[in-house]
Specification:
Elements: E1 3-7, E2 18-21, E3 38-44, H1 52-65, E4 66-77, E5 83-86, E6 89-92, H2 94-104, H3 115-128, H4 138-147, E7 152-156, H5 169-173, H6 175-181, E8 182-188
Parallel strand pairs: 1-2, 1-3, 3-4
Antiparallel strand pairs: 4-8, 5-6, 7-8
Helix pairs in contact: 2-3, 2-6
Length: 189
């Protein structure tokens, strides 16, 4: 009992009592854990890799597996972090240009040099690169968690919250990109 489950572990291998699961553990299927057997679950940059309805099913499975009062912490790239709405008009914000510059510094990506084009290419990469299948926002993820029967959803800052100190996306992409693109929510059963 009282398991701590980490999906999307990658380079972030958490110490005991955490159990780390990488891509070989398919979150689109029923989780192989007993109902009410986990105290905490971390799903770090994985929900964007599956279609929305399968992610909703994963949230329901997390709710089933968590003990009463247990916490699910999810992190994901959030396209809304790079948009501003003014008088009904939606545009890229300053963070989108910073994100473009940060992604352009990666040797594995070839982004345009012009700032506007670079920012647009960076957002396209966030939406559909690296095998991403679903574009999440804080609002859509929070809504899905509430639909999956979580009683409370709170936004957290990177490295902070009830499950503080377990975020590791920076190990894959660097601190600047992790902070720019990641939205983190904690949901309580």
């Amino acid at each position: 009992m009282h398991q701590h489950l980490h999906f999307g572990a990658g380079l972030n291998q958490l110490p005991d009592p955490w159990q780390n699961f990488g891509p070989a553990h398919d979150i689109r299927k029923r989780l192989r854990f007993e109902s009410g057997s986990a105290r905490a679950i971390l799903a770090e940059h994985v929900i964007e890799h599956i279609p929305f309805l399968q992610a909703l099913g994963f949230f329901r499975e997390c709710h089933r597996v968590l003990e009463p009062g247990g916490v699910l912490r999810i992190s994901f790239p959030d396209v809304a972090r790079f948009l501003v709405s003014d008088a009904g008009r939606v545009e890229l914000n300053a963070a989108a240009f910073c994100y473009g510059d940060a992604l352009a510094a990666r040797p594995d990506l070839d982004l345009p040099a012009a700032p506007q084009s670079k920012a647009r290419a960076a957002i396209e990469q966030l939406l559909s690169g690296w095998g991403h299948q679903t574009a999440w926002t804080e609002a859509s993820a929070a809504g899905a968690l509430l639909v999956a029967s979580f009683s409370q959803v709170q936004r957290r800052e990177y490295g902070h919250g009830e499950l503080a100190g377990i975020d590791g996306h920076h190990l894959d992409v660097g601190a600047e990109l992790a902070l720019l693109e990641s939205t983190i929510l904690e949901a309580r059963k």
